[in-house]
Amino acid sequence: MNLLKNFKAPLFAIxxxxxxxxxxSDDDNGPDLENNKGRLxxxxxxxxxxxxxxxxxxxxxxxxxxxxxxxxxxxxxxxAIIDDDIFxxxxxxxxxxxxxxxxxxxxxxxxxxVVDLPNGRLEEIEFEFDKNDNPDSxxxxxxxxxxxxxxxxxxxxxxxxxxxxELEFDENGSQGVISNDENKVLINFDLTTVLDPSGGVxxxxxxxxxxxxxxxxxxxxxxxxxxxxxxxxxxIKNQIDLLEDLYD
Length: 248
Description:
By secondary structure, this protein is mostly beta strands. The chain has one domain (9-22, 37-243). It is built from 3 helices and 14 strands. It has helices at residues 9-17, 191-194, 226-238, and strands at residues 22-23, 37-47, 62-83, 86-89, 93-103, 110-118, 120-129, 144-150, 153-159, 163-168, 177-178, 182-190, 215-217, 240-243. Strands 3, 4, 5, 7, 8, 9, 10, 11 and 13 form a 9-stranded mixed beta sheet that branches. Strands 1-6-2-12-14 form a 5-stranded mixed beta sheet.
């Protein structure tokens, strides 16, 4: 699989000579210190901390059991690439081809990919939500899916939107600087804020309109929750950020 696309000719020669590859975090060889390259690990997680006193949630007692996301590709855009003290200002990007199907409701961040990169400063990371095309997957024909209970009743939220999202690296931080070293970046989905009625989406009014015992919140509107489905999609998109350190 060719992970390198859309570089101008001079820059392509620099990167190709270093055998640009994706690799596992289990590789203990370390970054390439002799060819102006470092290593970046891209991780993702969903942070969720329901209130300890759930009686104060005004009937919005939510328990989550699953949060799935499907990404079609990930792009890394450089502000500048450094080779032998020469800066190549560049609007080009590195594309990491998916699909990446992720179950993010886990105690530990999920490794998406670890990749060797030329030294320089990254400006942004871009990823694309896309519908899953694997008929054996729980995410088939969906790009995002959440499962759990609302006041004890099972619920499913899903959406099939296809959209790119751009997250900028902190100009004053170190996470976007590749300098013959190991780096990690976490794409964090803050579900605590998403499901907080005071600042996110209040699911207490979600309906089981067809009476099948499952509250479905989706654009198909089987249960009459289409407005909530749109609000959930927007809230999730608004609560995605890059974190410099992987949390414990």
